[in-house]
Structures are given as structure tokens and as C-alpha cells.
Amino acid sequence: MLKRYEEFLKILDKRLDKYFEEQCEYIKCKPGCSMCCEVGEYPFSQLEMEYLMAGFMKLPYDLKNKIKAEIDKLKRTRPKMHKCPFLIDKKCSVYPHRGIVCRTHGLAWYDEAENRIRLPYCVNKGLNYAKVFNRETGEVFLQEPITERLRIDTILQSEEAKEYGLECGEIRPLMKWF
Ligand code: SF4
To answer: What is the DSSP letter of 39?
Structure first.
């Protein structure tokens, strides 16, 4: 299944790259910025978790130990929102194996079910989409938002995912897998 998931990710990544390009005038993502990995719960499905851990297994011994120490620390304190334990020295240590929430983060998209545009967390830090967001009123002045529903459950239960025979399993916050 992980091989098929990897193929599925190639198609998804292509589509996400296109979105980032189309929305580039609102995007502030740049190397060295790890804000979206510093505060969150990071929902991961069982399938994504297996893929993440396959990436973890390939890491050098020292890096694995640093990540294990981060996980142990979080297991002791169990905060709801936290830095991702795979973020080491401000870099994702498992980048090719990161989850779908990590891949989609940074984009704004129209949520038809709630009739509102969903913005990334970093808009509040003056980053992505800040120039089309009024923090005081909550209004969003984005003319052409992405219309694909960029939620991991929707992506992993899509017709496209079915074509790849994917079964995503349960979705939990990252630390609930440890
Ligand atoms: S897995 Fe990587 S990209 Fe995803 S939240 Fe953690 S550090 Fe960030």
C-alpha cells in the first residue's frame, strides 16, 4: 500500500505545486520558515503515519535519537498544541515522508460546507494571505480561492485515492499515535 500511496502523493504534490504557484502573490513560505510546524496538533491518518515512520527509519542514528527525545518529552507533558517532534533545527527531518496536512499547509481554500475561506495559521503572523485578510473584522478579500477541499480526510477518501486502492485508516493528532 505504501508504494501506491507514494504514487498518489506524486499526483497530489503536482496539484499542490500548481496551487502554490497560482497563489504566489499571497504566499510567504521560504526556506528557514518553519512556523507551520511549530504550533499545532498535526492530524495524521494511519496510512500517513506508516509512511512517516518509514521515513524515520531511514534517518541516521543521531537524528532518530533527537526525534525520540522530542517524542518522549511530549509524551510526558501531552500538550494539545506543540512543535512537531520531527522538526529538528527548524528543518523537517522526514520531509519527503511528511503528512498531507504538512503538504497543504500555507494555502487558503474555499470550504463549501461552511461557506467560508479557510486560511492558514500563519496569516495571523502577517504571512500567507495577510494582505487579503482583515484581522479586526475577520473578512477575507480573496477573489479566486482554491476550490478543492484541502482536508486530509477529503483527500484520502477521494475518488482519486480509491483509484490507488488507498485505505487511510483512523485519523488522529500526531502525538496520539505514540
Ligand atoms: S512532519 Fe515535517 S512538515 Fe510535517 S509538521 Fe512535522 S516537521 Fe513539519
So the answer is: S
Nearest CA to ligand 1 atom 2: 92
172: phi then psi, degrees, rounded to nearest 5? -140, 160
Whole-angstrom CA distances from 99 to 31, 38, 159 are 18, 15, 19
Asked if 43 and 172 count as a contact pair (C-beta separation under 8 A), the reply is yes
Ligand 1 mean position, distance from CA 137 (Å): 31
pLDDT at 71 (0 to 100): 98
Q: In the structure, what pLDDT confidence band is assigned to residue 101 with cuts at 50, 70 and 90?
A: very high
Domain residues for the domain of 99 are 2-177
Collapsing DSSP to helix, strand or coil, 87 comes out as strand
What pLDDT, on the 0 to 100 scale, is given for residue 112?
A: 92
| Global confidence as pTM | 0.93
Residue 87 in contact with residue 38, Cβ under 8 Å? Answer: yes
Please tell me if the CB atom of residue 120 comes closer than 6 angstroms to any atom of ligand 1.
no
What pLDDT is recorded for position 106?
A: 95
The total of structural domains in the chain comes to: 1
The verdict on the CB of residue 109 being under 6 Å from ligand 1 is: no
Q: How far is CA 37 from the centre of its chain?
A: 8
- For atom 5 of ligand 1, the residue with the nearest CA is 37
Q: Establish whether residue 133 lines the binding site of ligand 1, counting it when its CB lies within 6 angstroms of any ligand atom.
A: no
